Amino acid sequence: MNARALDEHLEAMVLALHAAVNRAMPHVKDDPALVDQALRDCEEILEVILDGDVAGWLA
Amino acid sequence: MNLVVCAKIVPLASVTIQIDPATKRIIRTGVSQELDPQAAKAVEEALRLADRHGGSVTLVVMGGEDATVGIRSALAMGATAAVHLSDPALAGSDALGTSKALAAAIRKTPFDLVLCATESSDSYTGLVPGQLAQLLGIPPLTFATALTVDGNVVTIKRQSEGGYDTVSAELPALVTVTTGINEPRYPTLKGIMGAKKKEIRKYTAADLGLGPGDVGAAGARERVLTVGRPPARPPGRTIKDEGDGGKQIAEFLAGQKLV
């Protein structure tokens, strides 16, 4: 297994989660649609991580 | 429209930056890095222009192998392709050396508009965009808080002390964007997966026709002489309100010529 590629992929996922949260948090009160979308995007990424299909990630 | 974004990959905001006492440079090896949040705003602005006018967004980055994650992040946001200047010979470049390398890389591709952050989030020199514009022979439009392109003309609202100035130039041109210009989109899962298939062209200094006199530590004309912490602030004055707190505060502010 290419550990570096896996490391980079997981880092990209975590950075995306971080960016989504940072984008949404300032708008918790004024833009619920944006917050909902960010939550769905985070959920999508987390589901992929939890599935753990490492070979698929690196394909 | 061919849009180029010059970006820097910097240590994660959560990382406490360490300085190598020997080289006086930021230690980047082994440190988690990300696309500079300031550069992400330039990427976002380029993507919005591409959405409106069509065209491509090419990211140009100078950095070590660790920069890949940050580059992929911009590609996952939607950038079309990336150019990665990665070569030990480039390590230790000063602002001018960096500008020379970026300019040489940009000249290899057609461009109409170059976008940069006003300054990076790690070293904050703010020197590269102006030098880059000079080397490319294009006008720099700096401190943009808003940006539009109409035909062959780019117009910005330039942040100033009293408000903003409206500044225009014919393309090709370079624009630096300020923090408040937009809120960058974040990479989605689809974007992350799609970014894996996007092209990252790699150039060395030699590929760019640059030698040790131009870039790297040997070509650097700037020298960091010392790095230190700012002097400790004197302790603040605590005013205990015993009925005359407001008066004491007013007197203090008057003494400072603040009221």
Q: What is the strand and helix layout of this fold?
A:
The complex is a heterodimer of chains A (59) and B (259).
Chain A: H1 3-24, H2 32-51, H3 54-58
Helix pairs in contact in A: 1-2
Chain B: E1 2-7, E2 9-11, E3 33-35, H1 37-53, E4 56-62, H2 68-77, E5 81-85, H3 95-107, E6 113-117, H4 128-136, E7 140-150, E8 153-160, E9 163-170, E10 173-177, H5 189-195, E11 200-203, H6 216-219, H7 245-255
Parallel strand pairs in B: 1-4, 1-6, 4-5, 5-11, 6-10, 7-10
Antiparallel strand pairs in B: 2-3, 7-8, 8-9
Helix pairs in contact in B: 2-5, 3-4
Structure at a glance:
Chain A has helices spanning 3-24, 32-51, 54-58.
Tell me about this structure.
The complex is a heterodimer of chains A (59) and B (259). In chain A, helix 1 runs antiparallel to helix 2 (32-51). Chain A has a domain at 17-50. Chain A is mainly alpha-helical and 59 residues long. Chain A has three helices and no strands. Chain A is 80% helix and 0% strand. Chain A has helices spanning 3-24, 32-51, 54-58. The termini of chain A are close together. Chain B is α/β, with parallel strands linked by helices and 259 residues long. Chain B has a single domain (2-219), classed as 3-Layer(aba) Sandwich (Rossmann fold), CATH 3.40.50.620. Chain B contains seven helices and eleven strands. Chain B has a nine-stranded mixed beta sheet, sandwiched between helices. A two-stranded antiparallel sheet of chain B has the order 2-3. Chain B is globular and about 70 Å long. The model of chain B has no long low-confidence stretch (mean pLDDT 94). The chains are: A mainly alpha (59), B alpha/beta (259). Chain A binds chain B through residues 8-9, 11-13, 15-16, 19-20, 22-23, 38, 41, 44-45, 48, and chain B through 32, 34, 68-69, 72-73, 76, 183-189, 191-192, 195.
